[in-house]
UniProtKB/TrEMBL annotation:
Catalytic activity entry: tRNA(Met) + L-methionine + ATP = L-methionyl-tRNA(Met) + AMP + diphosphate
Taxon lineage: Eukaryota, Metazoa, Chordata, Craniata, Vertebrata
Primary site of residence: mitochondrion
Official protein name in the record: Methionine--tRNA ligase, mitochondrial
GO cellular component terms attached to this protein's record: mitochondrial matrix; mitochondrion
Organism domain of life: Eukaryota
Assigned protein family: Belongs to the class-I aminoacyl-tRNA synthetase family.
One GO BP: methionyl-tRNA aminoacylation
Enzyme class: ligase
Domain Methionyl-tRNA synthetase anticodon-binding: 340-435
Listed EC numbers: 6.1.1.10
InterPro entries hit by this protein: Anticodon_Met, Met-tRNA_synth, Met-tRNA_synth_2, Methionyl/Leucyl_tRNA_Synth, MetRS_core, Rossmann-like_a/b/a_fold, tRNAsynth_Ia_anticodon-bd
Location(s), subcellular: Mitochondrion matrix
Species of the source: Xenopus laevis (African clawed frog)
Length: 478
């Protein structure tokens, strides 16, 4: 209904409208360097066949029956709601309306004969699935448990075609079309090759979703899968929303942040970094251009970019290479600082891995930034620009400081690559790192600090391509 109404408002047929929206998503994915193995359109023949077969399986298993549905329905959310999920509200014109407590969107009472899914019978199976703690972060798991404290009503899974023409017809009754959320959720199966198990065996590990569609993914979807004899997802990673200057984004308020405009302001990697660094999955986060400018200048331009510039500058590193490292070159008074920095660098990949596994990407990036700043403090305290190349001990100390800083940068860039692939590549190119040595797997860092042979010692740096991330001025970010 939502698609049909939106298309009608623009004077378009639903297929043309959906094609336009789909292209917008593909375009922004490409602009943000987001890759995908498949992009399922629910109008594709393979998806229609998957939905039909899935429906017939549910029907054969006795989970679908014809009945009368009466209750509240939210067209904007495409969701059925119980009485307790709605509340009376006064709109801007003073009219009394009923709205969804979750989204605030208006709901309407509907009463019609539909096909129903026996959701009520699957509550024990859903509670059993929740014992595996599949929903992350924890606050969202608690919310799903709260939803399941009450009995689940059966779910309407069709619409009369006379009222809604946009949809896949029910296989055994063309006078009805299949409910959009049953249709849409099956696209996970479509991408896996369903109903042909030889294409890609179904074994879902992780689903990524917004908190506004948690109910569909944490109750309806696992229930559908269990009813069809398929395993439910092992993990649901749920993220919250972005607000704009403290207010929910809304077209009517004209405060929607345009990602294309942000790419122009901050670059692709700049926007990626800000969203990943400033966003926390368990709570809504506020998007402001002032915060973006300050964070990107501080962490990418000054801290990371500054560190790269300092240890590769010809005045500091005239040979433009990875020099030799010897721990003994450091004066006794500096060795505690060196030891602490090495300890932090050795622990960093473990810390980052732990935070990523917890879906706390912002914490992983925070750890990296903290180490970058520690490296800057180390470089500043050692002041290699004050050490004379003509004095043997000072030259050896200078070399050790530069080596340690370059190796730290190699580690930072490798860890940052998933978040900011463009910037990480620039750093690794500048350091002259071969492509086969740009992953954590089967790679070693800081080998010379452990007295081991290091591939990079005496290796030449790559060409200087200028500033890593030029500082953003106010006029560029506002």
């Amino acid at each position: 209904m939502k698609v049909q109404q939106a298309a009608s408002a623009l004077g378009l047929d639903p297929q043309t409208f959906c094609s336009t929206v789909s292209l917008q998503f593909r375009t922004i994915f490409d602009a943000l360097d987001i890759s995908y193995t498949d992009f399922v359109r629910t109008t594709e023949p393979r998806h229609i066949e998957a939905v039909r077969r899935f429906w017939m399986t549910l029907e054969e298993q006795g989970y679908i029956y014809k009945g009368t549905y009466e209750g509240w329905y939210c067209t904007s959310d495409e969701a059925f709601l119980s009485e307790g999920q709605t509340a009376e509200h006064t709109d801007f014109e003073g009219n009394k309306i009923r709205v969804s407590l979750e989204s605030g969107h208006q709901v309407h009472w509907v009463s019609e004969e539909n096909y129903m899914f026996r959701l009520s019978s699957l509550r024990p199976a859903l509670l059993n699935w929740l014992q595996t703690e599949p929903v992350h972060p924890a606050p969202f798991l608690k919310l799903v448990h709260h939803w399941l404290e009450e009995e689940l009503p059966d779910l309407s899974v069709s619409r009369q075609r006379s009222r809604l023409s946009w949809g896949i017809p029910v296989p055994s009754d063309s006078s009805h079309v299949i409910y959009v959320w049953l249709d849409a959720l099956v696209n996970y199966l479509t991408a896996a090759g369903y109903p042909n198990p030889q294409l890609a065996p179904w074994g879902p590990s992780t689903h990524l979703l917004g908190k506004d569609i948690l109910r569909f993914h944490a109750i309806y979807w696992p229930a559908f899968l269990i009813a069809a004899g398929l395993p439910p997802p092992q993990k649901l990673l749920v993220h919250s929303h972005w607000t704009s200057e403290g207010t929910k984004m809304s077209k009517s308020l004209k405060n929607v942040v345009d990602p294309s405009d942000c790419i122009r302001r901050y670059t692709t990697d700049g926007l990626r970094y800000y969203l990943l660094r400033h966003g926390a999955p368990e709570r809504d986060c506020d998007f402001t251009h002032r915060t973006a400018r300050m964070l990107l200048n501080s962490e990418l331009a000054d801290a990371l970019g500054g560190l790269l510039n300092r240890c590769t500058a010809p005045a500091i590193n005239p040979m433009q290479h990875f020099p030799k490292f010897q721990y003994e070159n450091f004066p006794v008074a500096s060795r505690d600082q060196v030891h602490d920095l090495l300890g932090a660098l050795q622990e960093l990949p473990v810390e980052v891995d732990q935070w990523i596994k917890k879906f706390q990407v912002h914490k992983a990036l925070e750890c990296i930034d903290a180490c970058v700043r520690r490296s800057n403090a180390f470089f500043q305290s050692q002041a290699p620009w004050k050490l004379q190349r003509g004095v043997e001990k000072e030259a050896a100390l200078r070399d050790s400081v530069i080596y340690l800083t370059l190796e730290a940068l190699r580690l930072y860039a490798t860890l940052l690559h998933p978040a900011v692939p463009g910037l990480a590549t620039v750093v690794l190119d500048r350091l002259g790192v071969p492509h086969k040595m740009r992953t954590l797997k089967k790679n070693t860092f800081l080998a010379a600090t452990r007295g081991e042979i290091c591939y990079f010692q005496a290796q030449t740096l790559g060409p200087d391509k200028g500033l890593l991330f030029p500082r953003l001025e106010k006029s560029e970010a506002f």
